[in-house]
């Protein structure tokens, strides 16, 4: 009897230990859901962002956490010419979940309009998003360009090359204007429209050839110009002007406040030209004709008419930026209605790739 009780209690103890061991094996650690905390809108002091290596402020980025490995960033008003851009991001936690402050690394890219790819890389730590936004342009326009040289030719086809054969569409600058009565009044003098175009073309050609050395359309969407100033070679700063290409058009963007600050020699806190500033931010559209290492960038009548109301306020700013040229600026203002009505109007530059 004693042996039976002994075996009975031994069996109960064995079953109890077995049960305990089974419970330990089935236990699983709690699910890590800390990644959900990165979702939200980041702005102000919660956002540190650069665009093409330049610090930007006044922006906001919305992050949606899809899983512990995936997220989506939405940029609004950050990329010129694109109101909203969504970038799918790969997410990785670089610190352990039990750490006091988790650090999530983010990286991804997206193709957007304008022959561009936008890439984003950064991290979320302590509720602050640090993000680097970079642009890559895929277009034949990327590269270094110089002004096209003027080549004399027999425009009239009479076998003789003289002053009457001047080609206003040749060289680095061109201006074409055919008025209803065949005349243009400028500076108190009335001359045939062809003569006016030739004179303006020759002056512009001379100025550009003496000053502009090179225009670089960088892969990151910036434009850098190399030019002569006071006998020295000068390069414009990156971030001052940018571009993107879409539907046979090149859109030129400007940091208008930087431009005004440079021309005035001081920063401008408030600028009344809000329409012009918006146009400069989203891109001033110019017709682009590019083929086999040559390109023309121009404004025609249709484009001039559509931009007229937005660019007109610039005339009010020019006297401040160009002191002593008030009379000339006034004459240009008088020409605007003529240009708007002229279907043959074109003005632009011819470039050759280096």
In short:
By secondary structure, the chain is of the alpha+beta class. The protein has helices at 2-26, 193-211, 256-264, 274-282, 301-321, 326-341; strands at 40-43, 47-51, 54-56, 60-65, 70-79, 82-93, 103-112, 116-125, 128-137, 143-147, 173-176, 183-186, 189-192, 212-217, 222-229, 232-235, 241-246, 249-254, 284-291, 294-300, 346-353.
Largest sheet: 9 strands, mixed
Query: Helical proportion?
Result: 25-40%
Task: Count helical runs.
Answer: 6
Give me the Rg, rounded: 32 Å
**Terminus-to-terminus distance:** 108 Å
Structure description:
- With 354 residues, the protein is an alpha+beta fold.
- It contains six helices and 21 strands.
- Strands 1-4-5-6-7-8-9-2-3 form a nine-stranded mixed sheet, with no helix packed on it. An eight-stranded antiparallel beta barrel has the order 10-14-15-17-18-19-20-21, surrounded by four helices. Strands 12-13 form a two-stranded antiparallel sheet.
- Strand 5 (70-79) and strand 6 form a beta hairpin.
- Helix 5 (301-321) packs antiparallel against helix 6.
- Residues 5-23 and 266-272 have low confidence and may be disordered.
Q: Helices and strands in order, then pairings?
A:
Elements: H1 2-26, E1 40-43, E2 47-51, E3 54-56, E4 60-65, E5 70-79, E6 82-93, E7 103-112, E8 116-125, E9 128-137, E10 143-147, E11 173-176, E12 183-186, E13 189-192, H2 193-211, E14 212-217, E15 222-229, E16 232-235, E17 241-246, E18 249-254, H3 256-264, H4 274-282, E19 284-291, E20 294-300, H5 301-321, H6 326-341, E21 346-353
Parallel strand pairs: 2-9
Antiparallel strand pairs: 1-4, 2-3, 4-5, 5-6, 6-7, 7-8, 8-9, 10-14, 10-21, 11-21, 12-13, 14-15, 15-16, 15-17, 17-18, 18-19, 19-20, 20-21
């Amino acid at each position: 009897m004693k042996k039976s009780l002994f075996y009975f209690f031994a069996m109960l103890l064995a079953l109890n230990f077995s049960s305990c061991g089974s419970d330990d094996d089935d236990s699983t650690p709690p699910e890590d859901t800390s990644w959900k905390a990165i979702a939200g809108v980041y702005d102000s002091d919660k956002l540190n962002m650069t665009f093409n290596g330049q610090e930007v402020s006044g922006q906001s980025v919305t992050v949606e956490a899809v899983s512990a490995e995936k997220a989506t960033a939405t940029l609004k008003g950050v990329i010129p010419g694109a109101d909203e851009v969504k970038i799918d991001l790969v997410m990785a936690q670089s610190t352990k979940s039990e750490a006091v402050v988790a650090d999530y690394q983010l990286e991804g890219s997206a193709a957007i309009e304008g022959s561009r790819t936008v890439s984003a890389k950064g991290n979320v730590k302590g509720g602050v998003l640090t993000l680097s936004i970079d642009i890559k342009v895929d277009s034949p326009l990327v590269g270094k360009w110089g002004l096209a040289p003027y080549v004399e030719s027999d425009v009239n086809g009479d076998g003789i090359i003289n002053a009457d054969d001047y080609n206003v569409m040749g060289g680095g600058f061109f201006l074409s204007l055919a008025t209803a009565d065949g005349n243009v009044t400028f500076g108190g003098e009335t001359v045939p429209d062809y003569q006016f175009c030739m004179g303006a073309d020759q002056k512009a050609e001379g100025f550009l050839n003496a000053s502009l050395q090179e225009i670089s359309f960088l892969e990151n969407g910036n434009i850098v110009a190399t030019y002569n100033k006071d006998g020295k070679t000068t390069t414009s700063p990156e971030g001052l002007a940018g571009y993107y290409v879409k539907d046979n058009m090149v859109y030129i963007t400007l940091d208008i406040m930087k431009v005004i600050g440079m021309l005035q020699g001081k920063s401008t806190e408030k600028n009344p030209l809000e329409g012009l500033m918006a146009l400069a931010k989203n891109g001033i559209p110019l017709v682009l004709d590019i083929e086999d290492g040559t390109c023309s960038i121009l404004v025609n009548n249709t484009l001039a008419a559509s931009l007229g109301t937005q660019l007109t306020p610039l005339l009010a700013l020019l006297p401040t930026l160009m002191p002593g040229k008030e009379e000339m600026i006034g004459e240009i203002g008088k020409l605007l209605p003529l240009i708007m009505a002229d279907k043959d109007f074109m003005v632009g530059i011819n470039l050759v790739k280096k």
